[in-house]
Amino acid sequence: MQESLHRVVKIRISVPGVGNLTYGHPRRSPNPDGRPEISRIILVRSTLARGSGGAEVMVLIKTIVFTFLVPGTVTILVPYWLLSSSASPQPVQLGVFRYFGVLPILIGIAIYCWCAWDFTFAGRGTPAPIDPPKTLVARGLYRYVRNPMYLGILSILLGEALLFASWRLFEYTAVVFTFFFLFVVLYEEPVLRRKFGESYRRYCRSVPRWVPWRIRNTHGQVGAEGEKSQT
What b-and-e string marks burial along 184-198, b requiring 16 or more CB atoms within 10 Å of the CB? Predict the structure, then answer.
């Protein structure tokens, strides 16, 4: 009478964002018909829906929805409404120079996407004030200026004003900047000071609010705080 030996050595590996991988490798054991067989079983238990990977996907979806609703309205719907209004003033005479407006539009889009990416995957939050990053983001463009996302939106609007040679869009850009300034000074910065404390105060002392007048690497004290808070 043949007895089947079925010893299994299992190794469990925890992979962030994937879950636990369990690897089992039974020893050689004969089948009922007497032929030897080597079997290998790999069991993958995915926890994406509950783990960090699933959370990042949800944050990314919320960021995309917010981008279409808010920045999309500010940079597309409102300018379209202003340009199509019958009371729109005469266009600025810029000639072929108006096409230089394409450059700040592309730069602004790149800036916004870069900042939204850092918000999602480094700060684990969205640009929406009701769902902000959970940790202080002091990487990427935030090493040089504290509000690069707002500057990206303003760059898009300035490019649109040039491209369409519209005084009304220039005025609209000035209004949007005034709103951003008041929102940052009166609401956003006080909230961040209460939330992140001394690390945000050091960040404010090292990084300017609007104009990156000193381009330097802030990976030192401020960057270390930002990366530490993200772990």
Answer: beeebbeebeeebee
